[in-house]
Design goal:
Layout lengths: L2 H23 L1 H19 L3 E9 H14 L3 H17 L5 H8 L11 E9 H9 L6 H16 L1 H14 L1
Antiparallel strand pairs: 1-2
């Protein structure tokens, strides 16, 4: 056996032992594997895509149209993106859902078909899992509206402020 073969054999043996030691001593690894298996089983048991009808009040629909115009994205894609944004705010930025709802105004109010627009939306299982994780699985419509309001506030109200500053400069 050459020295190269011996070295590669030793390295292989050592790396196998390291993996075994990590698996034996790490509860975090075991928990992560367990969560991954559980999530995979949940995803396999559910449909891959679910359809929803989202009812958006005209005032929120105007915000949606402004967003789609600014970002050049379809309305359906923007609604899904807004749901993802709510998840991001709660999960990554660690914002409180109830505080966000309070700040953004009431959701799920009286919305007649006269003053609202309906959108058919198909959400994949990953997005549905995120909605479930933030506790809004029974309130997908509210989640979409909340996301639209958040995105509008964070992206489109800047324009209004710029217009105001331009007008004041002209005076």
């Amino acid at each position: 056996m050459s020295s190269k073969e011996t070295k590669s054999g030793l390295n292989q043996d050592l790396s196998d032992k390291k993996v075994i030691n990590i698996k034996k001593n790490s509860k975090k690894v075991d928990e992560a594997i367990k969560k991954g298996i559980q999530l995979n089983e949940e995803l396999e048991n559910e449909d891959q895509i679910k359809e929803f009808t989202i009812k958006i009040l005209n005032t929120d629909n105007q915000k949606l149209m402004e967003l789609t115009s600014a970002i050049r994205m379809s309305r359906a894609a923007m609604i899904e993106y807004s749901i993802e944004y709510v998840y991001y705010c709660i999960n990554r930025l660690k914002l409180n859902l109830d505080e966000i709802i309070q700040k953004m105004g009431g959701l799920g109010g009286n919305s007649n078909s006269d003053s609202s627009v309906l959108y058919n939306l198909k959400l994949d299982i990953v997005t549905l899992h995120k909605i479930k994780k933030i506790g809004m699985e029974e309130r997908v419509n509210d989640c979409a509206i909340l996301g639209i309001r958040l995105l509008y506030q964070n992206n489109c109200t800047v324009r209004e402020l710029e217009k105001t500053s331009e007008i004041s400069k002209e005076k």
